[in-house]
Design goal:
This protein is an alpha/beta fold. The chain folds into two domains: 170 residues, CbiD-like, CATH 3.30.2110; 178 residues, no CATH class. 36% of the residues lie in helices and 23% in strands. It is built from twelve helices and 18 strands. Helix 1 runs parallel beside helix 2, helix 9 runs antiparallel to helix 10 and helix 10 runs antiparallel to helix 11.
């Protein structure tokens, strides 16, 4: 089926992440404090390499502190935080440095295996970097030698979090401040699938018979570093649609597929789940424990995996135990199920990475036609 035959849908409106909103609120609050003038908007540079301007919902200046707030607009694919008001309070302090923490409605990590350390506010690494960089830039621009304490809060965040996976993950007290690009790019299922088909067609038209399929932008970055010999159009973001992507790769003549991803989604592919959205397919820790046992891990390590907080936590446990065969076995399972999904005729390799880009394991299988 050609892409032109897919019914054209009305373009969906993009939105912004909680991380982008928090960084904008910090800019407005700190600028207001240092200038004495309440800011009505804030323009920041996002990790997606574009500028975005945010309206300031609330701004208040005190003697040595200021508060500003931004309402989150998630675009046409809103999540539970759509409409949430993200507050940033900035306070000058005598000692140098920038301190960042979460307040009301921002969760706190209580279990290992997350992107933030136990005890920290659930402000993920990219938003954390955005916020700190924004504060550093403003302090430098205004030649301010004082240090700053920043508190991010989301009134009602604890109630919002009940509709997320935070409780299961051990993030208590509120939502997480998230986002790796700053922008939420909404896709309907039909539009996203159409974009996958189009991407495969572009790769084929460019002479590619080997493609790398990834679950997102971060894993795509790791895939590009791993496979520099591939053309740019050979890298395809499949999102959660693993089975759909594999089948259309075969249909359109691709001979080899490199699957590159991380533990959360690939732990599901390893057991034959081909639609890996967190809501439709939770991580099966009994399955991972079985894999650990098969890989030769001891009874204590196997039980630890069974009780792990996240798939990444399970990976950390296996790394600490020196059980490299666990990752190779997991990758081999991914290859086997991928080939089974398309009834053979392809070569599939799978590479597993940590969130920070460390290669955990790799495997390859050749499927008979």
């Amino acid at each position: 089926m050609a892409v032109k035959d897919v019914k054209q849908e009305k373009p969906l409106r993009k939105g912004y992440t909680t991380g982008a909103c928090a960084a904008a609120a910090v800019q407005a609050a700190l600028t207001s404090l240092l200038t004495g003038e309440k800011q009505e908007k804030a323009t920041i540079y996002l990790p997606a390499k574009v500028f975005a301007t945010f309206a300031i919902e609330h701004c208040e200046i005190k003697k040595r502190s200021a508060v500003a707030a931004v309402k989150k607009d998630a675009g046409d694919d809103p999540d539970v935080t759509h409409g949430a008001v993200i507050y940033a309070e900035v306070m000058l302090k005598e000692e140098a440095g920038i301190e960042l923490d979460g307040g009301e409605g921002v969760g706190r990590a209580t279990k290992p295996g997350l992107a933030v350390e136990v005890g920290q506010a659930a402000i993920n690494p990219v938003p954390r970097k955005m916020i700190l960089s924004e504060a550093e830039k403003i302090l430098k621009d205004f030649h301010c030698s004082s240090g700053v304490k920043i508190i991010i809060s989301v009134p009602g965040g604890e109630e919002m979090a009940k509709k997320t996976l935070n409780g299961r993950l051990g993030i208590v007290g509120g939502i997480s401040i998230l986002g790796t690009r700053g922008i939420v790019m909404p896709f309907s299922t039909a539009a996203y699938k159409a974009s996958i088909i189009q991407a495969i067609q572009v790769a084929v038209a460019g002479g590619c018979d080997h493609v790398a399929v990834t679950t997102g932008g971060r894993s795509e970055k790791y895939a590009m570093k791993q496979l520099p010999e591939l053309k740019e159009e050979a890298f395809i973001e499949m999102g959660d649609f693993v089975g759909f992507t594999l089948k259309h790769c075969k249909r359109l003549g691709i001979k080899k597929i490199s699957m590159v991803g991380m533990m959360g989604k690939f732990s599901k592919v390893a057991q034959g789940v081909m639609m890996v959205h967190s809501k439709s397919a939770p991580v099966d820790f009994d399955f991972l424990a079985g894999m650990a046992e098969k890989a030769g891990a001891g009874a204590k390590e196997v039980e630890a995996v069974r009780l792990a907080n996240t798939a990444s936590h399970a990976a950390e446990l296996m790394q600490a135990a020196g059980c490299q065969s666990f990752f190779e076995l997991l990758c081999d399972n991914c290859c086997a199920h991928a080939i089974q999904e398309v009834n053979g005729g392809l070569t599939v390799d799978t590479t597993l990475y940590t969130f920070k880009g460390e290669c955990l394991g790799r495997a390859e299988r050749h499927g008979e036609s």
